[in-house]
Amino acid sequence: MGKDQLEVLNALDVAKTQWYHFTAIVIAGMGFFTDAYDLFCISLVTKLLGRIYYQKHGAAEPGSLPHNVSAAVNGVAFCGTLTGQLFFGWLGDKLGRKRVYGMVLMVMVICSVASGLSFGREPKAVISTLCFFRFWLGFGIGGDYPLSATIMSEYANKKTRGAFIAAVFAMQGFGILAGGTVAIIVSAAFKARFPAPSYEVDPAASIFPEADYVWRIILMFGAIPALMTYYWRAKMPETARYTALVAKNAKQAAADMSKVLQVEVEAEQENIEQGGNDFGLFSKEFLRRHGVHLLGTTSTWFLLDIAFYSQNLFQKDIFSAIGWIPKAKTMSALEEVFRIARAQTLIALCSTVPGYWFTVAFIDRIGRFSIQIMGFFFMTVFMFALAIPYQHWTLKENRVGFVVMYSLTFFFANFGPNATTFVVPAEIFPARLRSTCHGISAAWGKAGAMVGAFGFQYAEKGIGVRNSLIILGVVNLLGLLFTFLVPESKGKSLEDLSGEGEQENAAASGSRQQENATAAV
């Protein structure tokens, strides 16, 4: 950025990494920890729900959720998330990031607890209650996406901004890991307290009444980390970029950042008041400047989430198909929960979590564009490598190889587009539209997640796992092509990327000309 950048924004751009950066990462990151825990823990308990509420007397196989019920339980939170991303993204630009941030967290806490409760004991009542509260849980989670990304991008310096935003998103990996760990601990504890035979030995005894507490405890646990961070979110000051560029209060922005950075920052109110970068989201000027960028961020996130959420939500089905998890009838209800959680935790530990932190380490070195291209490329390669010789991978001696290949697709999703699609929309749009545009991009991602959650469920039954994996490979290839619409943002000021720097320079130049004219008179 040139010498005419507002001093408060320049101070943020060139600030050395300080304690407040790490504080912001933890505060925003714990929201994402909770988001991931809440969104992905449902896949750990759907088999248990089927056994408890949809068991048919005398059936050869344990009960399972009907296809429509399974799709609703897995996908309803994504519907809420999509709605929340659009609504809270817009609200974050209207009311400010800080004011909306605490509101989002309380919605998540209340609905996490409520999703473990039921109005009635009949299957219809239990599932209806679960779906209702998981929709509103998703609504709160949706708000966390644009607000956390925007807050972190506006607090960070330009040298390490990508790593800081990616570190917030990387907490999602720990959330997925925590979901599996909690499910393992809870199911193991109940197994030890209430031993049960496998379904084929004694169908009635393989599931006991106390098992109904297991899924409720797992779902309700998500409220704890969110509640722990509420106080610290309430204490965070509004971002200087919102206060200065949107609220037009340079004095307050300078005062807030003087405390945060522990240096004296000049206000420069006259430069703010003369800025004229006021085009709206639906204006021709926005379309000219950022239309292609918004198409790039929405399309890549949409395509990525079709593949990513299909893989995540239906790991248990794929592991069962290749025999990595035994047939359901050979296990008791809680043994099945334990084994599914153990398998998903192993995948998260070996590939998902490392992938996120590889992105954190390299995003400001090799750039967002290169990481996203590389990620989509290897996801495509490994998906086709799994799908084309699929029968080979189902043989018992090749199952370990299948899991390794499957894990690599997760690794390159996270050391790739799953992280970069979150980072870039928080950097390339103007401050007064940044949260809105990130919310729109994320909402398209969740639309992709719904296609994955609902579509893969039916595709797997209709065309089989092999053909479903081929389709996901093609989706990844399309994601690679649409990446070329997204600009590289590494090492650049947010104002340079959004075009707001031009208006700041013009405002400052106009201010100086006015001062010179006054002096001449």
What does the model show?
- This protein has 24 helices and no strands.
- The protein has 521 residues and is mostly helical.
- It has one domain (9-264, 285-503): Growth Hormone, Chain: A (Up-down Bundle), CATH 1.20.1250.
- α11 runs antiparallel to α12 and α14 (284-313) packs parallel to α21.
- The longest helix is centred in the C-terminal third of the chain and has 34 residues, at 333-366.
- It starts with 6 loop residues before the first helix and ends with a helix.
- Residues 506-521 have low confidence and may be disordered.
Oligomeric state, counting identical vs distinct chains: single chain
Q: What order do the SSEs take from the amino end to the carboxyl end, as H and E?
A: HHHHHHHHHHHHHHHHHHHHHHHH
**What's the CATH architecture?**
Up-down Bundle
What's the mean pLDDT score? 86
Are there runs of 5+ residues with pLDDT below 50, and where? 506-521
Computed over alpha carbons, the radius of gyration is: 25 Å
The number of E-state strands comes to: 0
Total domain count: 1
Main pleated sheet: none
How far apart are the first and last residues' alpha carbons, in Å? 33 Å
Name the beta content range.
under 5%
> Structural class of the helix and strand makeup?
mainly alpha
Number of helices: 24
Shape: globular
Task: Give the CATH topology.
Answer: Growth Hormone, Chain: A
Going by CATH, the homologous superfamily would be MFS general substrate transporter like domains
Instruction: Tell me roughly what share of residues is in helical segments.
Output: over 70%
| CATH class identity | Mainly Alpha
